[in-house]
């Protein structure tokens, strides 16, 4: 505690030293100046702490992905001496990670999936979905397909994902490909499920709370479905744009992306909003449809799911409140 000269005597507890420090600051700065400084510091913390949190939360998803990768490496070492090259060596790992991701979706987003019965138990199907700022809803969908259907869905991802350090094993185990047309057709002809988002990274970055589909004139996915004679299943997740958002949709960011295919901005959010994934009716193979006609038909199907299940414009607070609103089971 301070003595008459403003000094601290020995033998006092930690709280005494704190009081002493405050007293010395008051003498050095003046009491009014110190009070003003502390008030300003309190204001800064009150304003900026929420901002820091919304930028940190997306990093937890990245951390969870790297923890998944670490688990795969441990699993690989454990099994490399027995069945190291068998076709199903990764089944246990996939099911374990699927259970963990499904648990994450249930706890954090109250995740629901409607129409999973439309995914065939065997045989090919092309799943076409709307791409959120972070396609975490698609991760939850993949987990449900593994758990409830016992199938692995091959996924088409942007080249950018393959450049992230340490992701190679994760992408291999979950059959992620960068999307050459022949590779997609081959996977479908072999009887696999294939999932893709025609809007890709462009839709992830530059779509907004109005949920526009940024597909342009893309029809490659339709050509794949026609060549493989596979049905197309549209998919959309309610509130996916409210879970995570992209900061940096200006002209400069768009120019950088279009020129170099690199995102120039920040992902923020991680809000525990309600996620509901809806699968539309399968669009069967029709030899009379051209690729352009099929692409437009699929786009209308995805847009119909958005119109039916998403309130426009999207709102984070409303999406948070929907966590407490139960919908009829038959919806």
TrEMBL record:
SUPFAM superfamilies: Glycerol-3-phosphate (1)-acyltransferase
Annotated transmembrane regions: 43-72
Protein name: Transmembrane protein 68
Keyword Protease: no
Keywords: Membrane, Transmembrane, Transmembrane helix
Domain Phospholipid/glycerol acyltransferase positions: 112-235
UniProt-recorded Gene Ontology molecular function terms: acyltransferase activity
């Amino acid at each position: 505690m301070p003595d008459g000269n403003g000094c601290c005597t020995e033998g006092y507890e930690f709280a005494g030293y704190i009081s002493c420090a405050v007293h010395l600051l008051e003498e050095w700065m003046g009491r009014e100046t110190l009070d003003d400084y502390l008030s300003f510091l309190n204001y800064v913390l009150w304003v900026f702490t929420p901002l820091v949190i919304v930028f940190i939360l997306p990093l937890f998803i990245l951390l969870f992905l790297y923890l998944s990768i670490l688990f795969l490496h441990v699993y690989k070492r454990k099994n490399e001496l027995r069945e190291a090259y068998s076709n199903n060596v990764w089944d246990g790992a996939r099911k374990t990670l699927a259970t963990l991701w499904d648990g994450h979706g249930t706890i954090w987003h109250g995740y629901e999936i409607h129409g999973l019965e439309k995914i065939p138990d065997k045989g090919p199907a092309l799943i076409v979905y709307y791409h959120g700022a972070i396609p975490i809803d698609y991760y939850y969908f993949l987990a449900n397909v593994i758990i409830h259907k016992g199938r692995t869905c091959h996924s088409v991802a942007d080249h950018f994902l393959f450049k992230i350090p340490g992701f190679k094993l994760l992408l291999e185990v979950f059959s992620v490909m960068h999307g050459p047309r022949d590779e997609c057709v081959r996977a479908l002809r072999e009887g696999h499920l294939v999932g893709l988002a025609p809007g890709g990274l462009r839709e992830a970055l530059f779509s907004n709370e109005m949920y526009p589909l940024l597909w342009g004139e893309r029809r490659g996915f339709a050509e794949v479905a026609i060549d493989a004679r596979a049905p197309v299943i549209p998919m959309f997740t309610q509130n996916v744009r409210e879970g995570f958002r992209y900061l940096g949709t200006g002209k400069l960011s768009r120019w950088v992306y279009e020129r170099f295919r690199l995102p120039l901005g920040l992902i923020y959010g991680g809000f525990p909003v309600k996620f509901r994934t809806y699968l539309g009716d399968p669009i069967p193979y029709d030899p009379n449809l051209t690729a352009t006609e099929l692409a437009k038909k699929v786009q209308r199907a995805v847009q119909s799911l958005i119109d039916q299940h998403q309130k426009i414009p999207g709102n984070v607070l409303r999406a948070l409140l929907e966590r407490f609103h139960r919908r009829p089971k038959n919806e």
